[in-house]
Every structure is written in structure tokens, then in C-alpha cells.
């Protein structure tokens, strides 16, 4: 059953004693029964900045403990990235900015028309106009087909954003076309951090404020072999998922197919990496140039995958300049 949407017209945010307002709330997409959330477009008003477009993400009523845990995970991940950015340690290009959440300390959010009525768990983050990569590949027939240089540019920016996330010490663990927003200039924004976690092997260490994840969670078509087998995961699992996205972006189809979870597990853990085949959009040269990276990203064993994304980022830059 899909829950009824909220009917907020404006939200009041009190954060560290300062008041802001989100107005002009409009539904941004249909409610998502999988993660039990709804998205709203709004305008953030603050005394410290001009009116700014934002997204309000809220848990639907009657959420369960898993829904709440994933929602908290997203808030904590975005808050961590923003904290490091404020410190000047990193920059967050391609990662949404978290403006407020009523699950963080010293923050209250309530309906302007009904201040006595509490608002369920929600967050306010930056709005980024564009289409999801999934829409560009499949869903929206009105959009023009992507050229090979455009696909390579999108994947280059995707690798850069994921690499930036790893520099924050985080793994995304649910990389797929639906979670990349492609802007009109082909820059990429990564969204939906509900399964993200700290990389325990990263030098930044693990933050105990984030809950440990069940590593068999994810989207089966894009999960790494170690996610299916319940082994400890690290940034190499994101590399594998990027390999699936890269193959799909180049060919328009997934590298492996299955009908159910056990079938996906067998495919990702046992089936060999498919070869790229030349077609009207993919030249033989492009196949030869991209196949080694497909092979290294989709290696079944972690130790056989690429060591970092820098090599792919540099190779894509060279190919785009030829």
C-alpha cells in the first residue's frame, strides 16, 4: 500500500536558535514504497542567504525500524561530508548539501500552518535540476540519445564523484543509474545515501555514530559478489557497481541478467565478464579501449579489481581529448 502524501505548504526550521523557512512546497516525484519516502521541491529562505531551491525528503507515516535506520544513515553521511567541507578538508561537488534535519541535535521542523503538529523524520537538502541516468538511458523517450563522448563524460564525472565520496571515508553501496542525477552540462550528482557506510579499511576510520550495515542489502543487478556472500565490503564494492553502470551506459543493457535474487547471486559470483561488441554507437576502438576497465571493475575477486579510480579517470580524460 502506498501511503498518502503529506500536505505541508510551508515548513519552519529552527536550527541552533536560528529560524529558516521552506515555502512553495510541491511534490517532486511519486512516493517511493521501497524506502518509504516522499520528495518535495521547495524554496529555502534564510537571513544568511538568498532564496535557494531545495528538496525536502520525508519518511512516510507508519515507517518501520529499517526505514528509519536507512534514513538516519543518509542524514549522517551527508552531515559528515558537509562537516569535512566546512573544515576545508574536502569539497562536496556532486554530493548534496544538507541544510537541516529534525533527526540532528538542536533542530526543530514543524508545519507553519500547524505549529503544534510535529513533522515526521525529514531532511532538507540542495536541489539539483537534471535527469537521472536511468531516465536518460531508458525511461524518457523524449530525451535525445546520448552520444559516446557524452556517455564517457557522464561516467568520468560519476567516477570523480564516487572517488570524492571515498575520500570522505564513505562507501555508497547502492550505485546504479537511478542514483545519479545528470545535469544539463553533464555534471553528475550522487543521491540516495540510505545504504552508505564508513569504509572500515579507510584511514579516516569508522565513525561509531553510523550503524553497521547488513552487507547483503542493495540492488541485486548492481551488487558486488561480496555483498551477495555477506563478506566485509569496502570501496571495491562500489568499484564493481560502477563497472555494471559503465557496461550498461556503453551498451544499453546489463552485463548479467537474472529473474530472482539467487539468480543474480549466481550471475555476479560465477558468470564471466561479457565482452563489449561494436555497434552503431560503439566503435571497435572504443570497445578495445574500454574493455580492460570493464574487466578490472567487474573482477569477481576484490584483489583483482582496480586499486583506485584515478587510473580510469585519467584514461577517460585522455580518450575524451583524442
Automatic annotation (TrEMBL):
Organism superkingdom: Bacteria
Q: Kindly name one Pfam family recorded for this protein.
A: Pkinase
Q: Sorted alphabetically, which SUPFAM superfamilies does this protein's record hold?
A: Protein kinase-like (PK-like)
Domain (Protein kinase) spans 8-320
Q: Which Gene3D superfamilies does the entry link to?
A: Transferase(Phosphotransferase) domain 1
MF terms in GO: ATP binding; protein serine/threonine kinase activity
What InterPro entries does this protein's entry cite? Kinase-like_dom_sf, Prot_kinase_dom, Ser/Thr_kinase_AS, Ser/Thr_Kinases-Pseudokinases
Q: Name it.
A: Protein kinase domain-containing protein
- Lineage, opening ranks: Bacteria, Pseudomonadati, Pseudomonadota, Gammaproteobacteria, Moraxellales
Amino acid at each position: 500500500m502506498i501511503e498518502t502524501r503529506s500536505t505541508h505548504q510551508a515548513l519552519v526550521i529552527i536550527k541552533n536558535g536560528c529560524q529558516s523557512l521552506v515555502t512553495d512546497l510541491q511534490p517532486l516525484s511519486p512516493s517511493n514504497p521501497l524506502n518509504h519516502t516522499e520528495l518535495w521541491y521547495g524554496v529555502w529562505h534564510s537571513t544568511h542567504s538568498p532564496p535557494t531551491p531545495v528538496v525536502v525528503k520525508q519518511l512516510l507515516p507508519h515507517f518501520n525500524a529499517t526505514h528509519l535506520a536507512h534514513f538516519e544513515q543518509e542524514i549522517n553521511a551527508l552531515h559528515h561530508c558537509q562537516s569535512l567541507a566546512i573544515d576545508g578538508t574536502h569539497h562536496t561537488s556532486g554530493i548534496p548539501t544538507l541544510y537541516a534535519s529534525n533527526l540532528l541535535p538542536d533542530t526543530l521542523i514543524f508545519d507553519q500552518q500547524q505549529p503544534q503538529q510535529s513533522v515526521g523524520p525529514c531532511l532538507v537538502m540542495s536541489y539539483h535540476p537534471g535527469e537521472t541516468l536511468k531516465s536518460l538511458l531508458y525511461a524518457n523517450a523524449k530525451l535525445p540519445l546520448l552520444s559516446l563522448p557524452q556517455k564517457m563524460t557522464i561516467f568520468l564525472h560519476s567516477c570523480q564523484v564516487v572517488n570524492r565520496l571515498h575520500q570522505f571515508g564513505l562507501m555508497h553501496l547502492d550505485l546504479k543509474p537511478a542514483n545519479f542525477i545528470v545535469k544539463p552540462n553533464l555534471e553528475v550528482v550522487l543521491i540516495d545515501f540510505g545504504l552508505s557506510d564508513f569504509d572500515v579499511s579507510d584511514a579516516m576510520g569508522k565513525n561509531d555514530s553510523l550503524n553497521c550495515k547488513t552487507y547483503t542489502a542493495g540492488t541485486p543487478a548492481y551488487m558486488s559478489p561480496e555483498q551477495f556472500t555477506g563478506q566485509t565490503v569496502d570501496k571495491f564494492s562500489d568499484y564493481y557497481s560502477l563497472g555494471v553502470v559503465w557496461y550498461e551506459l556503453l551498451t544499453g543493457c546489463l552485463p548479467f541478467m537474472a529473474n530472482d535474487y539467487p539468480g543474480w547471486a549466481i550471475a555476479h559470483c560465477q558468470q564471466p565478464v561479457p565482452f563489449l561488441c561494436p555497434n552503431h554507437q560503439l566503435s571497435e576502438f572504443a570497445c578495445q579501449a574500454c574493455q580492460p576497465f570493464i574487466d578490472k571493475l567487474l573482477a569477481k575477486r576484490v584483489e583483482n579489481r582496480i586499486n583506485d579510480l584515478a587510473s580510469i579517470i585519467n584514461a577517460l580524460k585522455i580518450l575524451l581529448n583524442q
